[in-house]
Amino acid sequence: KVDYDVCSNYGNWLYSAGIGNDPRDNRKFNMIKQGLDYDGNGDYVRLWVPELQGIKGADIHTPWALSSAALSQTGVTLGETYPQPVVTAPEWSRHIPNQRPGGSPHPRDRRGPAQHKNRGIDFYFSRKKDA
């Protein structure tokens, strides 16, 4: 099933492009975070991007971050069977397991959207960068 709502989709595409309406300063759409929050196991990506079907779990959201050995096991060759990323935003690094301090698993690797418990209104309207 493909979701189609003209107004919602148009607004989301504008926001993704960085030209949408958002009152918060320096706000960016983080595709990696969204993928982990709403498609933690990568099933949706696997459905629409068959070139990445061999990549298991959340690693499918960041194939360029995998080791060459891991990529060869999945049959993916960056630049040949799947393109290299055009850009990699610095904000993505905290959502990539091998680029976080200690390589610890991401809290969202446990499936399902993140739960923001005990976070007051100040969290959502904070002026801190990348909060």
From TrEMBL:
Domain Cryptochrome/DNA photolyase FAD-binding: 2-92
Cofactor, how bound (note): Binds 1 FAD per subunit.
One biological process term in Gene Ontology: photoreactive repair
The organism's place on the tree of life at top rank: Eukaryota
UniProt: FAD binding residues: D3, Y4, D5
InterPro entries reported for this sequence: Crypto/Photolyase_FAD-like_sf, Cryptochr/Photolyase_FAD-bd, Cryptochrome/DNA_photolyase_1
Disordered, as annotated region: 88-131
Cofactor section: FAD
UniProt entry keywords in alphabetical sequence: FAD, Flavoprotein
Name under which the protein is recorded: CRYD protein
